[in-house]
Amino acid sequence: MKRYYFVGIGGIxxxxxxxxxxxxxxxxxxxxxxxxxxTTLLEKDGIPIIYEDDYTKLPKDIDLVIYTPxxxxxxxxxxxxxxNNIPLKKRSEILEDITKGKKCxxxxxxxxxxxxxxxxxxxxxxSNVKCSAFLGGISKNxxxxxxxxxxxxxVVVEADEFDHSFLRLNPTIxxxxxxxxxxxxxxxxxDELKKSFEQFANNTSDAIFIKRGVDLSLDEDxxxxxxxxTISGLDVDYYAIxxxxxxxxxxxxxxxPNKIYYDICLNYGGxxxxxxxxxxxxxxxxxxxxxxxxxRAVESFNGVKRRFDVQIKRKDFIFIDDYAHHPNEIRxxxxxxxxxxxxxxxxGVFQPHLFSRxxxxxxDFAKALELLDEVVLLDIYPxxxxxxxxxxxxxxxxxxxxxxxxxxTKQGLLDLLEAxxxxxxxxxxxxxxxxxxxxxxxxxxxx
Length: 447
Fold this sequence. Notes:
By secondary structure, the protein is of the alpha/beta class.
C-alpha cells in the first residue's frame, strides 16, 4: 500500500486515476480549488480532499504526488512538495505506467476523443473482449470515467494533447479524430501541434485509424497498419452510407474493407456521432468483437455526460448540454441540432473557456455562434488563467452579427431563459456552466 496525493484531483482524468489507485487498496488524498459533483463523489469513495491552497493541512508521509500540468505554478501545495523533495509525477506519467505491458488503445484528437474512447470502451466491455478504460468523461452506461478489468489485456485511454501529455503513451492501437488549432498557449501555432500528433502516431506499434482529411506524415520505416474513416464518402477503409434519422435515432450502413454492415442502430443523437460510431466500430472489430456484440453495444450506447447530452426531450421543448468549447465543436453541435430539429428555434447559452482561447479565436467563435437563432453569452471561465486586458464576453458579443444576442451573468440566466422561452436549448462550454444544468432542467421540467 502507498500514500498518493493528487494536486488538481477534480480534473476528469485525474479523478479516474485517483479512484483506480484507491480501488487497488492505496491511501489517496487530494486538493482542488473548487468543490464539484466529481470531487463530492471522490469524497464519498473515501478520498479526503481539501479546497484551500494551504500546505499546513496536508497529510504526512506521502509516497508520490500526482499533479496536472493545468495547475498554477504558484500553487503553494505543489511548491511545498517540490521544496521537500517529495517524488512527483504528471498524470500522463502515471497513465504511461498503468498501460505498460497492456494493449493500449489511445484515442487522440482536438475534438471527438472523449465520445469515441467511451464508445469503444462500452463496445469492448459488452463483448467477450472486455477492457479497462481511463476516460475524459462520465459514461452514462457505467456511470464512471474508468473501468477496471484485470482479465483483459486491452486498456482504452483518452490521449490528451494538452502539454504534450499523449507523447508518454506507446499505443498498440491509436486513432486521430481531428487536428484543429487549439492549445496555442502551449504549442504556439498549428504546425507545432501537428508535429506533436505525428510523433504520437509514430509511437503506435500495430494499427492507427485516421479521419479522412487529417494530414499526417508517418514514419515510413515503421510497419504500422493504417486505416482511414469518415462519416460518408469513398476511397476510405470505413465509412457510413444511407444515414437516416427517426426521432433522434440514427440508422446507417457501414462499409468496411471486408463487408457491409446494414442497418446499424445508434440511439445517441447527432450526425457527428455517426462518424464517432464508425471509428469506434472499426477499432472494436479490429480487436475481435463479433458482429452481434457490436450491434447490441452500439444500440445500447447511452453516450457521455456533457457530450450532446439530452436533458429534456418533449415535443414542445428540447434541452441538450454539450462540452463544446472550440468554434468547430460549436459548429458541429449546432449543425447536428439543425438536422434533428430543422423547423425549431435553437437558443444557445455559451460560456467561453480561457481568456487565451477566446482571444485567439474571437472571430471564429462569433461566426460559429451566428449559426444559432438566439445567443446568450456568460462570462469567460478563466480555469488556469488570469484575465487578459480587453478580452471578455461583451467584446465577443459585439462581434456576433445577429440581433438576438444577450450577455448575462450566471445569476440572471434562469430569468432570461424563462423570458426567451426557447424551443431547443443548448448549453455549451468547458467551464462551470455545467453547474447550471441541473437548475435549468428543474425549471423547464416543471413547465
